[in-house]
Write a structure and sequence with these properties.
Elements lengths: L2 H19 L6 H4 L3 E3 L2 E3 L5 E2 L7 E2 L1 H13 L1 H4 L12 H4 L5 H10 L1 E5 L2 E5 L6 H4 L2 H12 L10 E2 L4 H12 L1
Parallel strand pairs: 4-7
Antiparallel strand pairs: 1-2, 2-3, 5-6
Helix pairs in contact: 1-6, 3-8
GO molecular function: electron transfer activity; heme binding; metal ion binding
Protein name: C-type cytochrome, methanol metabolism-related
Organism: Phyllobacterium phragmitis
Length: 174
């Protein structure tokens, strides 16, 4: 099993267990970046997060998440994660969805049969264009959810870190 898939499986199990124990609420303070490892930012709990400079420059991973979201997810979830008649507004959902729950839902999919309306989120755990960039998509949507990033393409971005190139190469070729 490729390393990324092992990490994904661990995150899913952790997310499911954590979700069963406590609820999740996210805001700008909780999502604040406190560490930076090779251009990837993390909050105080070690969850991937975004970093937006005072001049509006976004970190590479948030920008990549914007690009990946708009190539794979916007058809159902609407531009900028604002939702559509097909799927919910992820810019709202991530306010209460944990990182583990996000990974689990994207990887495994979800079927909701409530109030006579069926909705289905397909599984993307085997789609490299999604699972190789799940953290990127997550941090982009997290930035949208907590009001850190306005709608539309980020005007400025940090350069792509070498660690991102290495991860992309190993994930896409693995």
């Amino acid at each position: 099993m490729p390393v990324r898939m092992k990490q994904l499986c661990v995150a899913i199990v952790f997310g499911v267990l954590a979700g069963a124990v406590n609820s999740h609420a996210d805001d700008k303070e909780t999502a604040a970046a406190v560490t930076n490892e090779d251009g990837k930012y993390y909050d105080k709990d070690g969850t991937p997060t975004f970093n937006i400079g005072e001049d509006g420059t976004v970190d590479w991973y948030t920008y990549s998440g914007y690009r990946r979201f708009n190539s794979e997810c916007h058809v159902c979830h609407g531009a900028d994660g604002a939702g559509s008649s097909f799927a919910p507004a992820l810019a709202d959902s991530l306010k209460t969805m944990s990182y583990g729950d996000f990974l689990s839902t994207v990887a495994e999919g979800r079927k909701n049969l409530s109030a006579g309306k069926e909705s289905v989120m397909p599984a993307f755990g085997d789609n490299k264009n999604v699972y190789c960039y799940m953290d990127d998509i997550y941090v982009y949507l997290r930035a949208r959810a907590v009001g850190g990033l306005p709608r539309g393409r980020p005007a400025k971005k940090e350069d792509k870190p070498e660690a991102a190139r290495e991860h992309e190469s190993s994930c896409m070729d693995g």
